């Protein structure tokens, strides 16, 4: 099969193999499956199997601005696609010029960078036509899919300004996914999660964090302003056991750094360490001190007994010891994870509250933010890291701030206990009743 005349100048930059096959099929009145068989010698269940192809057919049209392999979304992802979640999405404006970007195939991509519009998904009827019939020419009444006729595409494929617009948008996306995939293949847990996620908008905290990377291409003007708040925190796994004294010292340092004027705030939580009689009382609390309470409670949760009166500063670190014993090779956990855990949990809960959720805190062994920090870092090397956003100082709630002592007026959180290992946090301004559970 010979490439049609409008491919003489090559394919569009970052044009997907799906888009190329659709165009060739519409010209020859064939199905994309038959076209792919003709140029590769393989019969695939189109379009699903086209999302992950390792050996690129040599007969696909080239593009001088990028390699042929980049017609396939598998070039920008290290994990395999979940069959149940494979979708074909498109931009109406792009399809009118016969263009389907390879990045539209990636589940994390939800907007077209060229036209700034949200991607749409093929309806069931159009999806079925992809495999067995030639591409529809008339616009679908259900999903709006429309592939511009070949004769209508000739001027666009000769438009150098358009070509470089497509290339610039594709290059920005390529740099982002190369950045993720390279680090994911190096074993970095945060980037493995970004590589495998179905949406950067899955949780408010993840959405707020990803936009802070300078390479993130799907940003808004607001996201640009927040870029400076991203930090990479690193820590070293010790070769010898850290004593409890080192952990207490790390807690004291955290209190002095972030909770220097919160004595009254911290004193409130001693009551939550005693026997809970089932009565739900709501207290107005400072979010920063509350997160510190969760940090200390999490690390000592295996020894917290009902009816045992305790104080925040006397909680043990038995959960840390249990984690160390549970990992093969017995890796010692560094005490500096106190600070990393505090900042990560503060950022996570803050953005749920800011988005209007009611946050239900759940505490279970071998699950939660701290467990993920430790478990995903148990590699052969002794260094690990995590990326996190920092909650702006002006948005950190504090009792003193509420009264205006520090010149800030910040809304406090309503905090209540639901059981031995469950708590609720909400803000008075929250209009909805949507609850999200956070394992700490």
Tell me the number of strands.
9
Structural class: alpha+beta
- How much beta, percentage-wise? 5-15%
CA-CA gap between termini: 58 Å
Q: In sequence order, what are the helices and strands, one letter per element?
A: HHEHEHHHHHHEHHEHHHEHEHEEE
Number of DSSP helices? 16
Radius of gyration in whole Å, from Cα? 27 Å
Overall helicity: 25-40%
- Could you say which overall geometry the principal axes of the C-alpha atoms support? elongated
Explain how this protein is built.
This protein has 440 residues and is of the alpha+beta class. It is 37% helix and 10% strand. It is built from 16 helices and nine strands. It has a five-stranded mixed beta sheet. A two-stranded antiparallel sheet has the order 1-2. The chain has a two-stranded antiparallel ribbon with strand order 3-6.
